Amino acid sequence: MYVRVGLGPNAENRNFGGLSVKDLKHLIYFENLLQEANNELVQKARADGKYAVGYTCYFMPEVLLDLPGCFSVRLRAPRCTSPDIATYYMSARVCHYGRSLFERALEGGYNFLDAQMATETCTVTCRFQEHLQKKNLDSVADMDVIKNDNFFCEFIDVPFKKTENSYLHYKEQLKYHVLDKLHERFGIDSSDGAIMKAIEQHNEVCRLINQIGDYRKLDKPTITGYEFHVIQLVSLACPKELILPYLRETAEEMKTREPDERWPFRCKVVLAGSENDDPEFTKLIEGCGAEVVADRYCYGAVESRIPIVVKEGQEPLDAIARHYLDTSNCPRFMPQDIMRERKQRLADLVKEYKADGLIVASNKFCEYWSYERVINTVVMKRDFGIPVCSIEKEYINSASGQLRTRFQAFVESVEIKKIQEGK
After folding, report:
1. In terms of DSSP bridges, do strands 290-297 and 357-363 run parallel, antiparallel, or are they unpaired?
2. What element of type H or E holds 206?
3. What does the alpha-carbon distance between residue 241 and residue 32 come to, in Å, rounded to a whole number?
């Protein structure tokens, strides 16, 4: 078990995949924050007069939604297992993620939102957001899903390439559909000074998350993939100003955390794939003996916690537009050179985090990641010699027994490979 030093009264012993550990001081609190989108810190920020702005995709820069006077909430649908009503509107042949989000919206789970900043990137989430948007047409009555008089929804068009024209188009989309709309509707200050203040806050979150995540690069990591997954998610789902004190304290706590004399896992893996905001999925993998040491998936930290650099004389919005296009490893970018860069990025992560293999998981009916997962399964093993476990799953784990069998078999195959190589 891990030895924990300087823990507060909230800490207790629990079991992580057969490993008895003592929690990080705020872990239980973080877990509770993830039970609902409208969590305690979201409620506190709204009570303080701030506007809640939802989003679903990396291409909607969270930093612009964290301008003074508002805060970003990356939407999730925790514990949603049967999106029956949403399926009526969206069909059973679209991914469980989009349907689960809409089911939660229909249940009233997002009524706290003052705005939804949408991206026309993933078809399913685009449809989810279209249902939220008020059409104001005489021929069709609005569904009025979000019971909030302030609520409005905006869409931005995101380029499929990374060229000078792409940066300019993306920047203009962000200005017109995000900055201008937040200023017009809520009076939010969208000046360069306000944007720089938001960037400073964003970069502090990035620094702390990366500082905590770097402990996973150790030969014997002092933080589990499950714990890190929870910490990363609260940084996306809670107002930055209110979650920062907890992140600072957790980063400080990690400095005195010591590893077991005997490492409790059998191998290390990088987890890649589509939307994954369910820490129980990470816990399931680790319960099978594979420690998740890097998260290259939607909602993960690999891209979203890269600090934004504003060069001298550069307009902050220009820096943001370039940053989010340049750092994205989304499979919607399909030029051959970009696809090869993504494979190399995964190989580099395996090496950087001293992983033994790669798990690629896509949500069922996810168009982009279904292609990417199949390609990764072949290329990563063929070109880089990295063992790959390919998984297609639902947004929420309903077939944990089948997944456990797959992961256990993969762990055993990795162990056999290490024995054959004399490691």
Report:
1. unpaired
2. helix 192-213
3. 18
**Cα–Cα distance list, 271 to 343, 346, 363 (Å):** 13, 10, 13
Q: Which amino acid is at 119?
A: T
pLDDT for the residue numbered 1? 34
Q: Are 8 and 25 in contact (CB under 8 A)?
A: yes
**pTM score, two decimals?**
0.91
Ramachandran sector of residue 386 (left: φ over 0; alpha: ψ -120 to 50; beta: rest): beta
Rounded-to-integer distance, Cα 183 and Cα 181, Å: 5
Looking at residue 398, what is its pLDDT?
Answer: 60
Q: What is the average pLDDT score of the chain?
A: 89
What lies within 8 Å, CB to CB, of 119 at 6+ separation is: 55, 56, 57, 59, 60, 125, 126, 155, 156, 158
What token pair was written down for 21?
Answer: 């550990």
Q: What is the pLDDT of residue 401?
A: 80
- Rounded-to-10 torsion of CA 295, 296, 302, 303: -150
Q: Return the closest-CA partner of residue 83 out of 370, 403, 395, 298.
A: 395
Distance CA 420, CA 311 (A): 49
- The two structure tokens encoding residue 361: 């998981």
The conformation of residue 175, written as its DSSP 8-state character, comes to I
CB 51 within 8 A of CB 67: no
**Per-residue pLDDT at 270:** 96
Q: How far apart are CA 408 and CA 414, in angstroms?
A: 10
What distance in Å separates the CA atoms of residue 373 and residue 414, rounded to the nearest whole number?
Answer: 19
Q: How far apart are the first and last CA of the chain?
A: 24
Bridge partners of residue 154, in order along the sequence: 117
Q: What is the C-alpha to C-alpha distance for residues 210 and 359, in angstroms, rounded to an integer? A: 21
Structure tokens at 41: 């810190």
pLDDT average per 10 residues of sequence, the chain (423 residues): 36 46 85 96 97 95 97 91 86 86 93 94 85 72 83 92 92 97 96 97 98 95 96 97 98 90 90 91 94 93 94 96 92 84 94 95 84 89 94 78 90 85 71
> Under a CB-based contact definition with an 8 Å cutoff, are residues 225 and 285 in contact?
yes
Q: From residue 138, how far is each of 127, 141, 142 by CA, in Å? A: 21, 7, 9
Would you list the DSSP string of 281-295?
A: HHHHHHHTTEEEEEE
